User: Which sequence fits this backbone?
């Protein structure tokens, strides 16, 4: 089976929209629905016909165009059964630990709560790609709005365990700010220093820093590195648990 085709584009002020397309069947899914017009522009540019919306979480910048797109294209809206009442227009309910078959491409459904309770990640193992919404960002992670720090850490542990070559799409272009923060807690990390300048270069040319890979995040994203001796030393938390170090890093980011 041919791999999913993937098209990413900008929405709202700093969101990314993503279309995924199965060439054999013509099925096309929007990962979340941040904004109608850019999604329709992307459909026109690709020539793809919208058939599905795969929702990661209920926030308006991820579901705001659900109903308009459903009405106009008859798109089937897929979301977490456990959060169904907050997902506008939901048709198909999926569950943590279950799967969703998108035109023969099987997504594993992973509960990655923390940013919201009921946030899910769609992991297409055969296509080597995960759509992580606002859980894991390039060099960052989502703010913990609804869940607990422990919940978010457990969600990140699931993403950490994916194959390193997994390509990770996320909902926002926050990377330059994330890089500045990352250097404040992991200033000696040579991979991070190199990456921060690469990010500045990409952004100065208007290029996206999303997607990333699990391997790159393991090397440079402080939220996946609370076990790192350099970070622990910098925070003076040599004997704390990984969950405690993660929570401290997340709190520092909230006020950075
Ligand atoms: Zn969100
Ligand atoms: Fe968001």
Assistant:
């Amino acid at each position: 089976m041919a791999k999913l085709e993937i098209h990413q584009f900008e929405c709202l002020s700093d969101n990314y929209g993503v279309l995924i397309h199965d060439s054999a069947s013509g099925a096309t899914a929007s990962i979340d629905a941040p904004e109608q017009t850019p999604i329709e522009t992307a459909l026109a540019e690709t020539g793809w016909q919208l058939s599905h919306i795969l929702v990661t979480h209920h926030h308006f910048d991820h579901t705001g165009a659900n109903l308009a797109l459903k009405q106009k294209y008859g798109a089937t809206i897929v979301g977490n059964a456990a959060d169904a009442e907050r997902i506008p227009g939901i048709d198909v309910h999926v569950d943590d630990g279950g799967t969703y078959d998108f035109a023969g491409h099987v997504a594993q459904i992973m509960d990655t709560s923390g940013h919201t309770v009921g946030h899910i990640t769609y992991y297409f193992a055969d296509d080597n790609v995960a759509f992580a919404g606002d859980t894991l960002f390039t060099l960052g992670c989502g703010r913990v709005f609804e869940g607990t720090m422990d919940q978010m850490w457990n969600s990140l542990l699931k993403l950490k365990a994916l194959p390193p070559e997994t390509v990770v799409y996320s909902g926002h272009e926050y990377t330059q700010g994330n890089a500045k923060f990352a250097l404040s807690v992991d200033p000696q990390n040579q991979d991070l220093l190199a990456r921060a300048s690469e990010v500045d270069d990409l952004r100065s040319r208007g290029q996206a820093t999303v997607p990333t890979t699990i391997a790159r995040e393991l090397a440079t994203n402080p939220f996946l590195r609370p076990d790192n001796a350099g970070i622990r030393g910098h925070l003076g938390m040599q004997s704390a648990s990984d969950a405690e170090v993660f929570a401290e890093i997340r709190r520092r980011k909230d006020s950075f």
